[in-house]
């Protein structure tokens, strides 16, 4: 079946199976490797993308459900987004595996609340796990980008 959507601002028409997860399409067909498969059950946040501005787990979202919607990945931020610069500045990425999902979740948070408290940041980021334990630096990066 055809999936018509926007990916990182570009209109796309992709061939997908009805039972295929969005992560497979993004990685295989578009080479978007920042969308990382880790848990495959939607609990770690490594595969987070923004779907119409909201963070979702691409590993559990059926690709056909993205029909007509806007998908955003870290590749679409271009490397110079304030969150990307803040993460680099405070070294909020040890291994970097969780960083794309963290950045996209933070982007959605800041779009909704441009000046979140530390508690609001922690709550918003709770669906993204960092295996290196860089949480304090991640909060610092989000606060820096918000200021």
Class of secondary structure makeup:
alpha+beta
- Domains counted in the coordinates: how many? 2
Percentage of residues in helical conformation: 25-40%
CATH topology (fold) name of the largest domain: Ubiquitin-like (UB roll)
Instruction: Quickly name the level 1 CATH class of the largest domain.
Output: Alpha Beta
Instruction: Figure out the total of helices.
Output: 5
Rg, alpha carbons = 15 Å
Whole-number mean pLDDT: 96
Strand ordering within the main sheet: 2-1-5-3-4
Structure description:
This protein has 147 residues and is an alpha+beta fold. The protein has two domains: 73 residues, Ubiquitin-like (UB roll); 70 residues, [2Fe-2S]-binding domain (DNA polymerase, domain 1, Orthogonal Bundle). The protein is built from five helices and five strands; from the N terminus they run E-E-H-E-E-E-H-H-H-H. It has a five-stranded mixed sheet, sandwiched between helices. Strand 1 and strand 2 form a beta hairpin. The N and C termini lie far apart (44 Å). The mean pLDDT is 96.
């Amino acid at each position: 079946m055809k999936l018509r959507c926007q990916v990182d601002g570009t209109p796309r028409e992709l061939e997908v199976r009805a039972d295929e997860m969005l992560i497979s399409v993004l990685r295989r067909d578009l080479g978007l490797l920042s969308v990382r498969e880790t848990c495959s059950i939607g609990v770690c946040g490594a595969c987070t993308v923004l779907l119409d501005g909201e963070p979702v787990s691409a590993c559990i979202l059926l690709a056909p459900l993205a029909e007509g919607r806007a998908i955003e990945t870290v590749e679409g931020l271009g490397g110079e987004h304030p969150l990307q610069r803040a993460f680099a500045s405070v070294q909020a990425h040890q291994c970097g595996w969780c960083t794309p999902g963290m950045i996209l979740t933070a982007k959605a948070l800041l779009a909704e609340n441009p000046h979140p408290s530390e508690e609001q940041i922690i709550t918003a980021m709770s669906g993204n796990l960092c295996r290196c334990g860089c949480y304090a630096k991640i909060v610092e990066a989000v606060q820096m980008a918000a200021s």
